[in-house]
Design a protein that fits this description.
This protein has 127 residues and is mostly beta strands. Helix content is 0%, strand content 54%.
C-alpha cells in the first residue's frame, strides 16, 4: 500500500485545483459512502489496481499480500490522501467517522464486471 498526500496544484480566492491522478488510464470511478465504524473491502483483485481517494472523514487503511499474507500494514488516512493498492494486495478500510471515498480502478473490475476480479478474504483483516 502506498499513501500519497495530495496537495493543491493551484489555489486562489475561488478555491483550489488538485490533481488526484495523472498519466493513468481509469476504467471505473466509484463514489462510496461510509458510516462511522463501518468496514469496507476485505478483499483483493488479481488483475486490478485500485486507487482510493478520501473525500471526507478519516479511515484506517489496511493491506496484506494476497489471501493469507502475513505482512500486514495499516495507516491512518484523511481528506486528500490517495491510497494505492496494487493487483494482488488485499485491502480494507475502517471509517473512523462518517466519510466518503472515491475509488478509481484500472482493470477488469467495474460496472457489471465488479465481481469478476473481486476475491473476498476468507479470514477478514478487519471486522
Amino acid at each position: 500500500m502506498r499513501i500519497v498526500k495530495t496537495t493543491a496544484n493551484h489555489q486562489d480566492e475561488r478555491g483550489e485545483i488538485r490533481d488526484i491522478l495523472t498519466h493513468q488510464s481509469v476504467d471505473a470511478v466509484t463514489y462510496i459512502t461510509c458510516r462511522a465504524g463501518s468496514v469496507r473491502a476485505n478483499h483483493y483483485h488479481k488483475f486490478s489496481v485500485q486507487y482510493t481517494y478520501v473525500l471526507r472523514g478519516g479511515f484506517d487503511a489496511y493491506s496484506q499480500q494476497g489471501e493469507d499474507g502475513t505482512t500486514r500494514e495499516s495507516h491512518r488516512v484523511t481528506v486528500g490522501d490517495l491510497v494505492i493498492h496494487e493487483a494482488g494486495e488485499a485491502h480494507a478500510f475502517r471509517a473512523l467517522e462518517d466519510g466518503e471515498i472515491l475509488s478509481l480502478t484500472m482493470g477488469p473490475r467495474n460496472g457489471e464486471d465488479y465481481e469478476k476480479d473481486t476475491y473476498r478474504l476468507k479470514e477478514k483483516m478487519v471486522e
